[in-house]
Design brief:
The structure is a homotetramer.
Chain A lengths: L2 E11 L1 H6 L4 H7 L12 E5 L7 E5 L7 H9 L1 E9 L15 E3 L2 E9 L2 H10 L3 H6 L5 H14 L4 H18 L6 E8 L3 E8 L8 E5 L2 E5 L10 E3 L4 E6 L5 E4 L4 H5 L1
Antiparallel strand pairs in A: 1-4, 1-10, 2-3, 2-4, 5-6, 6-7, 7-8, 8-12, 9-10, 9-11, 12-13
Helix pairs in contact in A: 4-6, 4-7, 6-7
């Protein structure tokens, strides 16, 4: 399991949410409260949109809680759209390319979950990547494959939520073919720098936690509320996704599983 | 706080105690049970005596629990005298030179504890190092200074326990001069490759935990027993140190605080 | 390009060849003389056989020339069969899993060369890996794929040189299909811990340099002689491979390209 | 030896000088032309002023040429006052705290040079640091001590060039006392975020190279010109320092060695 946060709103220093708040993401790296492992020390990453078309990425292997570079970059960089993630590895090696968020072109993605029986379906999942996205793969995680598969659907014209639904539906089909009993759990965030989609779904209805806070000029989404006692946080419902877009109220909608996948 | 273990006996693969046992040191790096912080993820180190006069050292910054190099080296290397340590940093930066164990010539040392008010006495403590040991300093931790001060005493002819006592007595004096209220706590291991000394002392009588197990051909000392349910572990008494030497039964003795220091 | 060395003979400390000699591999990491880039600073690795069935691996990202862990491990570990490699990356990310040598079971491999147009054939090359070896892949280099493809051939019963020839023949075929103009160059070492095979081949007859020295109880193979002025080094001929086996004189033989591949 | 650059002018993306130009600092990390070692692979650092009172710092151990974080941060961050440095270590360990630039409060410093016989005077040099600056020390390099000594002089009221001159004069005196024959060489940059001072001095008149380019809205200072063929670069004279301040023409002046130090 991992912990993450996503922000969209008035530009703020990343440190506000990543390092400084009471239960900031850095605090969650050592003291996560709502997941099986309190420690998320297998690398971290931040990704942010600034003046460029593509996001900046800073990912490293050390625990977030003691990384002076992370702290300094977060103190200096201000952004109106950013992601941050602390990782608890589940099998794949600790390398920068395996740290979240992942970026491709202007898109960015991060994930907290699992593909049950991944070893049994990895090969078919990777084979499903169109050439462009096969070559774009830099690490070896399941999360990066899901991201690239979704991008391939988007490139074909699907709206992002449907692209993600198609990706998860396909993944579930492979899992069924391989007689995998373990669950597919997908709590994740995806953005093109303008619209932010955050998902909280699982085929066993036990997705990892996800909350959001909507305040004037600032929507924050996080695995766990970054301040305590704030009643401005609400849970993203299980089986739902939210859409965050500037100038529009955040919407909550059921995740568009294809009927076939839901039936499964 | 940190966790550590020391071994003296028939040569065994380091993995036996470092990685493989039920509550191995690697397990303690993520799930320490007897200290304030369960996570000891700010680097690790192993030091071992083989065919050379000086010990080998392998220290790195990543958490021990996911380090494939640590695992592989521990699988291959066999030694009859070794140390292993996982670190939870308390202020100084995470760097290899700040990871335990420390080595100088044939001596090796590791520490789990604190010098209360270190910032206030650091300067005087470092100034007390004779030239040879001042130059030998590679990192910036308080632990390394204590090690080098004790070596300086040993170089003058003191038996190691008295050298350590003189070092801690001097440290306490500086703390008193600086009106430091916090405690000096010193749970540590020191060896020249032949005799192993392990200390468990604190000026507030709350030293970090330390256990030892004496079995035929194998003495193991550890912050926490590395297997559970074993009744062969006994606590090192507070205010005591043990001496482990080949062919001799392990002895437990009161730590030889100088009267002046004890009075303090 | 990279630099590497392989040793088989009486057990010696790794430092003898890796760190201590006049033009040791660590020296070559900063001052390589016979390749385009003098600097091989994108990680390093050592792999050695000791008392276990599988080799030990120690690979890291920092330049070899300043890595104190490498130096200490090489000072302590003695082996009669080991590999060492310093890397100059050519496109793939710097990560431990991309450092040579690679190990799988009791086999170990390292490579200095290139697959021309790798991006264009990567997908088909990886798809050719049988399941067991597809899952064994840990990094993202072309070298690791070649290793695993050769192991798959060996698993089918091929002698190692023929397995390597089949792998390279297949790779050349894919390159031809993809109209790749760049060369396939393969200077490499492969061992199961008992027999050592070292290859120096390229489809454009410009393979990277490779030398060997056969002395009583010690065969050393290296990208560049590790001592200078020694007349005991001879070049491995282009298009040849050598076989090093205990109790047998080293043999030099033409690389068994399949006729089809040679014609290409 | 090392290579560095400093910029003051209209805010530009750091990548312009650090990564993108023909002979950018990243290029110099692998192909330095005007120093003994072409390779500067022992870590790197950037420091920049943005919206905060204190500069941001990002320093890491890997070679600059392959660091994806460095590249991404430099692509996103825009600053009108920044430093960048690539290190070739000369004795001290490779750690983040030993990488340049160093920062303290709003001050920032980087150095390319050497204190001859440093081991012989280190102790007296460090002892000369007032408490505040003694405690601020985070690494173990000679460069950081010079920086902190100069800051201590500035804190007493000295203008920065005089503070640096006093520091170097004192250092030279210690070297003379210790009968050091080797040279003191100091090519360095110091700034408080507003005024930039760059020094090129050595007691043997062989300081490391330093150039500057003054163009409308942009002053760049660099160990080696970052573009080739540009005739807008001029060497900083030996024994001189330059002062760069917004809205004022850059001035070149003789370094204010104290008479005593010059006489030496």
């Amino acid at each position: 399991m991992c912990r993450f946060l996503a922000y969209q709103g008035e530009p703020i220093f990343l440190e506000t949410l990543v390092c400084a708040s009471e239960h900031s993401l850095v605090h969650q790296s050592l003291h996560a409260a709502e997941c099986k492992t309190a420690t998320n020390g297998d690398g971290f990453g931040i990704g942010w949109y600034g003046e460029r078309d593509i996001p900046g990425l800073f990912r490293d292997l050390r625990p977030a809680w003691s990384d002076e570079n992370l702290r300094s970059v977060c103190t200096q960089v201000r952004s109106g759209q950013f992601f941050a993630h602390v990782r608890a590895a589940t099998g794949t090696v600790t390398s920068r390319a395996n740290c979240h968020p992942f970026a491709h072109g202007r898109w960015m993605f991060m994930h907290n979950g699992q593909i049950g029986g991944y070893a049994q379906i990895k090969r078919r999942l990777e084979a499903a990547l169109p050439d462009e996205f096969y070559h774009a793969r830099q690490g070896t995680t399941d999360s990066e494959v899901l991201f690239l598969l979704a991008l391939a659907e988007i490139a074909k014209g699907s709206p992002p939520p449907e692209a993600v639904a198609a990706t998860l539906g396909f993944t579930k089909m492979l899992m069924r073919d391989a007689s995998v009993d373990e669950a597919l759990r997908f709590t994740a965030a995806l953005t093109d720098g303008e619209t932010l989609y955050c998902f909280r779904v699982a085929c066993d209805d036990r997705p990892a936690s996800l909350y959001f806070s909507e305040q004037p000029g600032a929507v924050t989404v996080a695995s766990e509320p970054v301040d305590r006692g704030g009643d401005h946080w609400q849970a993203v419902p299980r089986g739902a996704f939210i859409t965050v877009r500037r100038g529009t109220a955040t919407t909550v909608a059921p995740f568009p599983w294809a009927a076939e996948a839901v039936a499964a």
